[in-house]
User: Which sequence fits this backbone?
């Protein structure tokens, strides 16, 4: 009973998060250029599972991530994309939707007043559930490009933020999370490259 008697001794807590973000795609090929960032949104529930006390936690959860980016394919010749032949220099706008499962270690400071700060580092796992694309030449207009996107993606996440105690078990939280994807997002056999997804997220949440 004592383990559940106070906010400081809870074994875990949940947070509703709603996170606006900027995301972009990068390629290791000189013929594939990053063009511009994509404004997206990530929302869902995260859980902090405390490791002995509330200074250390394992953070996980399940969120819906709407992300993407723009790439210009300067291949020097026509290339095949989503079953269409597109000219060199075509820009593709990717709109991607993932189920996201983070897994990170969170370190929390002692309270000062009604505030504390935190830092986290870990992995982000993405499972693609929908992909669409638009090409600058007009051939593709929000068309399905599921065959061009790999189902699973993984990256590193690192971030920091603040928590403000509202009393009881409730608090508000805000922070910044950087996600650095390190697996290949795309699966186009006609373009030999490795494309990674990256994002800068502004984390907003309600802890209960």
Assistant:
């Amino acid at each position: 009973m004592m383990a559940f008697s106070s906010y400081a001794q809870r074994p875990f807590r949940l947070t509703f998060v709603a996170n606006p973000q900027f995301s972009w795609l990068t390629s290791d090929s000189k013929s594939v250029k990053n063009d511009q960032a994509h404004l997206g949104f990530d929302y869902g529930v995260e859980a902090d599972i405390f490791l002995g006390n509330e200074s250390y936690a394992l953070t996980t959860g399940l969120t819906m991530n709407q992300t993407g980016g723009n790439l210009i394919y300067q291949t020097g010749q026509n290339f095949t994309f989503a079953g269409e032949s597109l000219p060199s220099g075509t820009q593709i706008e990717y709109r991607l939707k993932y189920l996201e499962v983070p897994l990170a270690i969170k370190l929390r400071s002692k309270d000062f007043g009604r505030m504390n700060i935190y830092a986290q580092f870990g992995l982000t796992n993405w499972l693609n559930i929908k992909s669409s694309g638009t090409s600058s030449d007009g051939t593709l207009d929000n068309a399905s490009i599921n065959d061009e996107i790999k189902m699973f993606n993984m990256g590193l996440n690192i971030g920091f933020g603040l928590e403000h105690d509202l009393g009881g078990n409730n608090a508000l939280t805000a922070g910044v999370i950087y996600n650095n994807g390190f697996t290949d997002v795309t699966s186009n056999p006609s373009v030999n490259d490795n494309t990674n997804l990256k994002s800068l997220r502004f984390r907003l949440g309600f802890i209960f």
The chain has one domain: 13-27+36-69+94-126+133-199.
